[in-house]
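REQUEST ID: PR-0412
SUBMITTED BY: lab tech R.K.
PRIORITY: routine
TASK: structure prediction, single protein chain
INPUT:
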Amino acid sequence: MTAKIKLTGLYIFGVIVFIAIGWFANTAYHLFSSQIPAPGWSAYGGKPRPLEKYSFENLSQTYHQEVGPLDGGKIEIGKVIAENVDFTSYEFSMEFSPDLSKNLKKVTGLINIPKGTGTFPLIVMFRGYVDQEIYKIGMGTQRAGEYFAKNGFITVAPDFLGYGSSDSESSDIFESRFQTYTTALSLLNTINALKVYPLKRGQDHIKVDTNNVFLWGHSNGGQIALAILEITGKPYPTVLWAPNSAKFPYSIIYYLDEASDEGKLLITKLAEFMGDYDVRNYSIKSYFEKINPDAKIQIHQGLADDAIPVPWTNSLVKSLSDLNLDLDYRKYSGADHNLNPIWPQTVQNSLEFYKMNVK
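STATUS: complete
OUTPUT:
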C-alpha cells in the first residue's frame, strides 16, 4: 500500500454527502415504485444485483457446498523464478471461477518450495495494494515468503486477477475487489484437495502437509485473510501485519485522494453500489463472530505506520478479544507500515507463531 496522504475533514464530509445523495435518490425511487422485485433483483426498478453473490453470507453458503464453483483446480508449477540454497521459487498457476459461474480464468502467483524430502506445512500469503504498472510476481510477500521457505514452509502467494501473468480482472471495480475473496477461497480449496491430487513439479511429487495450512496477510491482504476466516469458519492459524480492518466502504474511502482522479470514479461507483446493496453484508466488521473460536491470530502493528492508523488495529484487537479469541498482539515503537526497521524481529516472531501451531 502506498504512503497515506491523510484526507481533510472537509474532503471526507464531501464524499459522504455525495454518497448519501446517491443512496437517497435510489431509495426514493424504490419507495415510489410499484414494482415488486424478484429474488436476486434490486428493489430499485427491477435492476439486477449481480454482486449480491459476493456478500459474505452468500460466499459462505457457496463455500460450504459439497461440490461447487469455489472448488478451484490443480496448481500447476511453472518456470523457476529463483534458485536458492534452501528453497526454489516458481511461478504457479491455477484455473478457477472468479464469478462463481462456469467461466474459468487463470490466476498466477509465486510458490516457494523448500528443498528436501520432507512433508512441508504451507502458508498462504496475501499482499497489500501494489500499483499494477509496477507490479512484479511476489511483490508484497516475497521477502517474508522466502524467510518462511528457508525455515521449512511452502509459501503460496497469488498475484490476483489483473496482476502478473493472470487473466484480466473484472471491469467492475467492486466485483474486482470481491473476486480477491473467490481467488483466495478457490486456492485454499485446491490446497486442501492436495490430499487426493498431489502437487507435482515435473515428475516429482511435493509432499504437502494439508493438516497444517496457515494464513499471512499484510495491509489489505490482512483484510482478505480476516474475510477468509469469517467466510470459511475454519481455524487457520493466521498472522496479520498492519491489517486494513476498517469497515467497508470506509476501508477504501480513507484512501481516495491517492487515486489519480482523486477518487471521483470510485465515489460515483460507490454511490451506485450503496443504492443497490447493503454495504454491511460486504464488511469484515459485520462478521467477526463468524471466526472459529479455535482460531489463533497474531497481529503486528508499527506505531509509526502512516498507511494503517494504529486505532484501527487497536479496535480490531478489542473486537476479537471481546469474542475471547486467542490473540497475540505485538506493537513496535518507531516501525512503519512494512514493519521497518524491526522487520527481522517481526518475521522471526511470525515464524515462531507458525512453528508453535504446527500440529
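NOTES: The mean pLDDT is 88.
REVIEWED BY: pending
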